Amino acid sequence: MPESDSRWEQTDLLSLSLVTPDSAPPPAAAEPLQPVAEREAESAAAAENQTVVALAPEARPDAGAAAEASAGPSAPCVDLPSFTSAARSLPACPQRLLILDTETTGLSPNAGQCIEVGAVLFHVPSRSVLTQVSFLLPCPSNPAQVVNGIDAAVSRLPQPWQEGLRCFEAMVASADALVAHNVPFDRQWFGLGALPPLQAPWICTMEDIRWPAERQLRPTPSLRDLALAYGVPVWAAHRALTDCLYLVQVFERCDELEELLQVALEPRRLYRARLSYAERHRAKEAGFRWNDPVQGAWTRRLSQRSWRR
Predict the structure, then answer these.
(1) Cα(153)–Cα(139) distance, integer angstroms
(2) What is the pTM of this model?
(3) Which CATH superfamily includes the segment(s) 96-263?
(4) Residues 137-179: tens digit of each pLDDT
């Protein structure tokens, strides 16, 4: 995150504090980050790559002291799914990335289904595309047509989508890691309906990769901003393969890609920013999300190295 905004300091193994630059004292209204629950050992945490957050409501004028009191010192903790899998060993840097994107008829599986999958198998050392595929999944309706431009009737036209799905599965088997821009959204559709569950490690280009400072990107940039920062023309949006190709072109132009991927695969935990309502902009500027995935809280997944950035 920009040094002019804030920096992270590690105070102990599993506790973080939000502090301002050395030249300025922290605001009186700001509270420290809510520490995560204690883990049995650092090595076990790294191996399991658990993501743990202490649940507590955000301090808001409409919540007041009663909301803070409701959390209490023994607020419950919840295990959240990690992006990486300890069951699968990785090379020092992934050699083959499966860059994927989905188009859907709703924002969650409870409100819609996946209508399109796009994927590109990308070879990191040569910065080359090996294979690419895109296919529609038959859907009865598409309330999100205004966003993705996919007519549900077109998705039901005769097409070899089953063969496209088999090609996609072969690409998954060949990949060292899966890449998406906003992993929590895309990965929720796999393992449902015709789409297979995906067990390979995930890398989120919006949240896991710390893009070079000279690109002048926000901590969690949009795909459009990321593409433009690397000189990639944005000529269309919201079709699965098109969005994958934007990431391909960013990777092709990124000289430090290997280092960024290695850092992106480091274990992460989810932390909650404890800030006053008046200081909520600080959490947003630092890349924290409101209500996602913990309701009533500003949270972000951070690796140990990112604490020191």
Answers:
(1) 8
(2) 0.71
(3) Ribonuclease H-like superfamily/Ribonuclease H (3.30.420.10)
(4) 999 999 999 999 999 999 999 999 999 999 999 999 999 999 9
